[in-house]
Amino acid sequence: xxxxxxxxxxxxxxxxxxxRDGTEEQTEEEKVLNEISxxxxxxxxxxxxxxxxxxxxxxxxxxxKDDLNNYALVGLGDAARKKSDFRQAVVYYQKCLDNHSxxxxxxFGLADCYKALNKYNQAIRIWExxxxxxxSNITVLTRVADAYRKVRDFKKSREIYxxxxxxxxxxxxxxxxxxxxxxxxxxxxxxxxxxERMYEINHNNVDIRVLTSLGNCHRKLRTFERGTFxxxxxxxxxxxxxxxxxxxxxxxxxxxxxxxxxxxxxxxxLKDPENKVILTRAGDAYRNLENFDKAEDYYSKALNIxxxxxxxxxxxxxxxLRGNYENAIESLRGLLRNDPKNHRLYTEIAECxxxxxxxxxxxxxxxxxxxxxxxxxxxxxLLDRLRNGNG
Length: 391
What we know:
By secondary structure, this protein is mainly α.
């Protein structure tokens, strides 16, 4: 018969000891979890304060304890994104999603990285995955609409912006997005509606970009005087804003107010004296003011930077105005070799031949253009005049 006392003596098992050991293991696990929680909170707080390197240290400490921790992976992605290291951020976000599929923060960050890398189709795919979990997130909806705008999908972009406005009337991002969308597709009157609404909402504290966008719409619609109103307001906010100065100069150019346009071209050149486009525009203004020496100087400065069609054209037109028709024709013919479909070059050459009294050559030049199969009213009217003996 077995002696139960002997069995008990063979084992050191003590239920109290067992309970006590389990408690210690649980406490150790809780300790690690608490450390991770504190590191995570501190890391995200440091990110908010812009202390990115310190935040990364916190998240790396978490990874040492738990290499697939979703908070740490997203945190490292956010830190890389703040440093504009979008490719590295993608790695962290993707690793998080591989192990924690559907993590909204990782999806949002990943999509934003793809957007920053100009990979708009990939950004759209990720954002649409995000919307499966949260289809009423206005921030994400406007980003999706922006991405569709970037890939020039007018219909989908507009649908989503309108959906946002139905959810939140006068949402600034949707109004701005719709303004850009219609502007990009040359629907300037439609674009104006949305920019004007932004102007109404923030009349006393309007963003300068809204003002320049309104000015640009009027510039494109050739309602130049109305454009100058908005550009002038923009310049009150930022006297050296390039877009406002350019818009103002171009509006005056459109109004044939060349002295006024020159004032703004010169202001741009004070800050950016090597701007080839502005040099040629200033040259055009001096040419229209019949200050040919000054115009030549500006065209030459532009050509010293690099070849410029408009500078060559400007010099040719000065030759034409000075009566140097053969020189003008030679320059214009040179431009035709690089731009054979530019109707203005043909009409300028034809006019030079007309001024030389050679109407037959003028007709030949215009017919040469028409053989390209391009219809142009000015060319047709000039040709009719010459053929009818009115040239």
